[in-house]
Amino acid sequence: MSERNETVLITGAADGIGFGTARFYAEKGFQVIGVDKDREKGKEALESLPGGRGAFYYCDVSDPDSTAELFQQLNEDSRSFSILINNAGESTFTSMFELSVDDWDRVLNTNLRSVFLFSKLAAALWKKNGTKGRIVNMASTRALMSEPDSEAYAASKGGITALTHAMASSLSPWSIRVNCISPGWIHTGREELTEADHLQHLSNRVGRTMDVAKACFYLTDPENDFVNGENLVVDGGMTRKMIYEE
């Protein structure tokens, strides 16, 4: 996809995959609306994007009222976008015997319900003005495999993969495409990596935020309109490699 006069909205854009994706799109000439509940880090991150192409907006994506207020503010600021990347998420790993209903709801509301709300509000705008919008939802390889104490997170990410193809079907009449990405182990600089970590992957390395950003870019290219309702696994082959305990 060559440089285009388009704007992308990315949730959870203050750091990690969200920030890496925001920077990638900005470097390609896109305007970026970055959304996060961390005001200080979010503002700093979006102001650092090349070309002054970033704009930060606060939103707690787990809160429907905060989401509605965000879209109202975007309307008042005359900011539109044609690409939505639902990246914001929370991971809580707690024994299912200790996981409270409030904790369960918080994870599901942050990771899954937010995808529905943002997509619904964005698609309503696109449907009204005839925009062939593109949505990318951030799932996880944990939608496909698990380790102990990940029930809430796995449920939210599995829900995202199902919600993706459901919305792709519902929004097809307006040529709005919906896909999702399931990243595997993506290094965001928070931990030290070992050679053993890299060798768990067929690609012989742990993933980088740029790997996910490039996948988003592929899925949002208007010329790739034959890719729809898909879950693109970006994990260096980790889920395809059989690993035996020694």
Automatic annotation (TrEMBL):
Q: Does the keyword NAD apply?
A: no
Pfam families to which the protein is assigned, alphabetical = adh_short_C2 (PF13561)
Instruction: Report whether Oxidoreductase shows up as a keyword of the record.
Output: yes
UniProt KW keywords: Oxidoreductase
Which Gene3D superfamilies does this one have?
NAD(P)-binding Rossmann-like Domain
PANTHER family associated with the record: 3-OXOACYL-[ACYL-CARRIER-PROTEIN] REDUCTASE, SHORT-CHAIN DEHYDROGENASES/REDUCTASES FAMILY MEMBER
Q: Which family does it belong to?
A: Belongs to the short-chain dehydrogenases/reductases (SDR) family.
What this protein is called in its record is SDR family oxidoreductase
Question: Can you name the source organism?
Answer: Halobacillus kuroshimensis
